[in-house]
Amino acid sequence: MTTTRANGSLYTNIKDNVAWVEFGHPASNSFVSELLARLAKEFDTLSLNKEVALIVLKSEGDRAFCAGASFDELVAISNLEEGKAFFSGFANVINAMRKCTKPIFGRVQGKAVGGGVGLAAACDYVYASEAASIKLSEISIGIAPLVIAPVVERKMGKSGLSELALAPTEWKNAYWAKEKGLYSKVFDSITQLDKELEFHVQKLAASNPEALAKMKQVLWEGTEHWDKLLLERAEASGELALSPNTKQALEKFKK
């Protein structure tokens, strides 16, 4: 079942010390601002939950994993304040994932675009299917993937980031993404992915939670300045969204 709600859906199911967090939206699991805010808050809540050892982030359905931020909200930006608020959505989610005390596993069953790639990059370990191609399309519509750039670069290096960002209409397949470090494992089918993921997280959730928390800290060392950095990037993105070039590109894209 996929949601028909305009503001999307977010459900968490905690079972055997694993929190399964599932988001959905009728527009290819894209994110409106309200849904991003709810997701950031959910990571903050789960971070403090003693019954949770680790988290799995997944999206609804068997098609797109995440099409990024809401195109309709992007088109509607009319001033700098709105622009900064819009782009802060993913900044806040990435920072919540970074600061969360529990390791986060990603389940990427299909294509990821823009902010969807950022979400996958902010996970600590990612299971993907063969269908999980990726693309950073921002430059083709006049903006740039500034907010997610630090988290993508952290996983894939500067070369991976530039290959994606400067070829904004080109899909890269799941095996390329694995080779670059975004995905940990790639499977032929979603069935096989789910079977292996379930086995892995159940085994890991039985480990010492303090050890998992310490490992999580180590994985994110050197990112302590991101609270400030990502919001600065959100403001810069908001400025780009207001430029005449971008407005023109967005109108063209809409048609």
Question: Structural class given helices, strands, pairing?
Answer: alpha/beta
Poorly predicted parts: none
Order of secondary-structure elements: EEHEHHEEHEEHHEHHHH
- Biggest sheet details: 6 strands, mixed
Could you give the count of β-strands?
A: 8
**Strand order of the main beta sheet, please?**
1-2-3-4-6-8
Mean pLDDT: 96
For the record, give the distance between the C-alpha atoms at the N and C termini, rounded to a whole number: 30 Å
The CATH architecture can be named as Alpha-Beta Complex
Characterise the protein shown here.
It is built from ten helices and eight strands. It has 255 residues and is an alpha/beta fold. The chain has a single domain, classed as Alpha-Beta Complex (2-enoyl-CoA Hydratase, Chain A, domain 1). It has a six-stranded mixed sheet, with helices on both faces. It has a two-stranded parallel ribbon with strand order 5-7. The chain is globular, with a radius of gyration of 17 Å. The protein starts with 8 loop residues before the first strand and ends with a helix. The mean pLDDT is 96.
Structure summary:
This protein is α/β, with parallel strands linked by helices. It has helices at 33-47, 71-75, 80-99, 115-122, 149-165, 174-180, 190-205, 209-219, 226-241, 244-254, and strands at residues 9-15, 18-24, 54-59, 104-108, 112-113, 125-129, 134-135, 185-187.
